[in-house]
User: Fold these one by one.
Assistant:
Number 1:
Amino acid sequence: MGIDTPTLITFIIYLVVMLAIGVISYRLTSNLSDYVLGGRSLTPGVAALSAGASDMSGWLLLGLPGAVYAGGMNAAWIGIGLSIGAYLNWQFVAKRLRQYTEVSNDSITIPDYFENRFRDNSKILRVMSAIVILFFFTVYTASGLVGGAKLFQSSFNMPYTAALWIGAAVIISYTFLGGFLAVSWTDFIQGILMFLALIIVPIVAVNKVGGWNETINQVGAVDAGFVDIMAGMGGVTGFLAIISSLAWGLGYFGQPHILTRFMAVKSSQDIPKARMIGMTWMVVSLFGAIFTGLAGIAYFADNPLEGAATETVFILFTQVLFNPWVSGVLLAAILAAIMSTVDSQLLVSSSALAEDFYKALLRKNASEKELVWIGRFAVIGIALIAGLIASNPESRVLELVSYAWAGFGAAFGPVIILSLFWRRMTRNSAIAGILVGAVTVVLWKTLSTPPAGAEQTEAVIPFALYEIIPGFILATIAIIIVSLMGKGPKQEVKDEFTEAVE
Amino acid sequence: MNYFCITLAYKIQEVYIVEEFSLSTATWFWLLVPMPLVVILSIISYFIEPKGEN
């Protein structure tokens, strides 16, 4: 792909707008609560779209269309699992978490919430969950930076290293300056851009192929199994594959960068409106991504994409179907998808360092201004580490995304749900839940991975099942058993529970 | 023999023309039920959830 002026100009305008939002938000940020939670001032629309955009990452515009292109309709199972999981998260977790985090000593981070909810004076819960956040998000952020660098590299024929650090510099700049407000507003704009791109591209592509019937007909002619969601899903292996795909939805309950959006909504009354906007955005976008992949099968039938190139089906459509100005906007949408996730993860990691390590362990009496600046420098530090991990384009960080998703889902998901719905839950059970969830994910992944080049049946666990399933189930069991074995929570904890949820 | 060849050619052409693909019933079900359903539920709950609490 060569560089062309209209595309470059569109890209630059997009990046300048993001930086401008960072500068404006800088003026509105005066304390740590403003910096990591925007002072709980998000409107329903901004909360909904920023939650969706920071959740989806480049997977929505590159990964999902590529998976449908390569495997047909049975790649849609993950989309179904994700939309059900996201809905349940909005329906059952969002409102209670918003209320509980405010009632419980105005908690502004997930580790902060755990500590206040369970009255944990030992700091074990706070530090343990902050370590989980820092570890998984540094790797997760690195994978986002790799995606952004590859997009810059392929769009502008830029060396990989330069592309990596230019992308990182823009994200660091607006996150450093504007914190949560900047991240939420840039995510909001990025969410709109992604939404429009995922409506326009498949409609134009299907139309170009000759309409819906013709597209499906050509897809079926390439491979009859591509038009059947159940193709290749027979037997126990197929059943486990479907369950594993649907189980991605479980991950939502434990993703700190999405949960903080719920905590930041202006009022719990706004949650139903935010849920409606967020779910509509998500489902329409998922359909757009699925149909982009399907249209790609028909459109590129004569020169099929292979291997890693299958994930460029969206990029290719922007280049062959649109003029360079529109193409520039659509390419910016891909960068938007990547940036909106990386910035949110950087901010959560920064808050873990400032609030959960620096303030909790080193300087209890640190001023608000000092904490904001610690948060800002934490953004730079974490981004630099993530950039160094990402500096090797062949590193396997991209593979760790599903691992990190499962890690957060299993370690935090059951703790979040039960802490909001079960009065009897204790501090020790929360510690047990986080430990069991995280360790199960790591062990299951290790034991179910076969040696290089070997069949799945040669692994210690001889079948493929997404590690979030055993992790989530065992963590839930651990929480229930440890809670029931120990002494119940103090009366003040129970009273606070009543105040928060009733 | 000529008649046989011509008939066979027509038959082959017919097969190619007639064979059309469409999304399977299971695919339509899984696309049109769970995903739109969560949107519909969100809209319904927006209108029926009690307002005025914080």
Number 2:
Amino acid sequence: MSSDMISSLYVFVLAGFVGFEVIRRVSPLLHTPLMSLTNALDAIAVVGAIVIAGRQQSTLGTVLGTLAVIASMSNVVGGFLITDRMLRMFRRGERKQQ
Amino acid sequence: MIEQFIQVAYILAVALFILSLRWLSAPSTARRGVLAGEIGMALAIGATLLNPEIVSYRWIFIAFVIGGAIGIPLGLVQMTAVPQRTALSHAFGAFAATLVGTAEYYLEVPKIAHFMMFALVMEVILGSLTFTGSLMAAGKLQEVLPQRPITYRGQNFVNLSILGAAILIGIYLIIHPEASYLFPLIVVIPLVFGVLMIIPIGGADMPTVISLLNSYAGLAAAAMGFVLNSKLLIVAGALDGSSGFILSVIMCRAMNRSFTNVLFGAFGQVQASADAHEDRTVRSASPEDAAAILESASSVIIVPGYGMAVAQAQHRVRELYDLLTRRGINVRFAIHPVAGRMPGHMNVLLAEADIPYDKLLDMDEANPEFPQTDVALVIGANDVTNPAARTNRLSPIYGMPILEVDKARTVMVIKRSLSPGFAGVDNELYYLDKTLMLFGDAKAFVGAIVRELSHAQGAAA
């Protein structure tokens, strides 16, 4: 196993623990926005797809890479948009009186 | 130089992603969390575009435009459609992982190290099964596919053999990464498995399944990070994976079931006739009676279930909430973790109807409140209020955590008929002396109570 892979494993394990601790604190009230936000963040896969699409090493790579950019870009845009729309609806009681 | 700059941007993006989730913990800071995530994402994408390996931007920008054009309508769906939208976005994420994995394999073969091949196999298998599994889940939620579980004899054996075959081929590929003729199989077999996996799962199990698919999509992205040696992707994937995992555990606990039971159990059709229907009497009441009881209460807890959302009764319920609160009655909502079709869905639906979030209680907050509550009003919820979960060892839902509405002084249940809920069991709650059944459509019935109350108010003024 290369040292790159070892350090990647470290990052994976540590990020897993960070994720666990941070997400455990999210109130059940916001579990739906949580899922749509993590979805949007997960679409960071777009950075991998961009390089594959732009490198133009082979036609297959460019086609698959471009499709992957489309798929993840739609998650980036849609994910942030809907998360923000949902969160804008959560209001406290006091401000509600018109 | 440019390489270092890109790495710094990625590290900032990672920090912003973690802050983003950290800020999501409370509604007051949550929108800041979204902003942090957006900045992190923009930073990462911007830095990636500077990568000197990129020789042409044409397809990238075309893909940006198409992706954005697909993403905008998906970001503007109605709140009731959020579960299927979420399933669809899991499918897109998993699709991207599968495509990148496939591209990377054919670009690098035959010089792929074993561990790298392990990550590639994980990425492609998880990606493919999550892709079709999520599409199926979205189809069931959108009701273009039948929501009831479809089962046949030997189903679990068939499913597990198919998955087993994919895993064996995967292991062979890890040992012999150059066997490229086998690679298409670890894409196609999991695609089939994803479909078969969701077929036996019923609509009410969707909260767990969506969370599980969320977790798989995250792990596929993390595996992609290993393949591309991108720490940024590994972190984002690990965050998504652990989020999905935590939510699935919460959902399973809320239904008192295990993962294996959700995935292989096909709950709900076996014990449909388990309870012999004896003729027991229930007390029913009219909207006028219900209005009078609500009016004389000083504290009310409303228990909404998915039935309320199906009947589109949220806005009527909000009017009821307004009328009662204006009379000084303390009205709150008790929300079971599996109310709705995905974790937290009911909260979003009520927030959309403009009900303040500090009136929404989760199960642990609500249960100690019921004994001091005058009226518990159950709208479109069934199994999650059944006291048999606490008392009847023979009940299939025994041990499931419930909202203890039977401890309130009076219970009112709005329901179309006495038909059993998803678990196929009779609800003991309906036969208690303190329970009043309000038979009718949720929207119409709440509307009738609202009219009654506003009449009374008009007369008093």
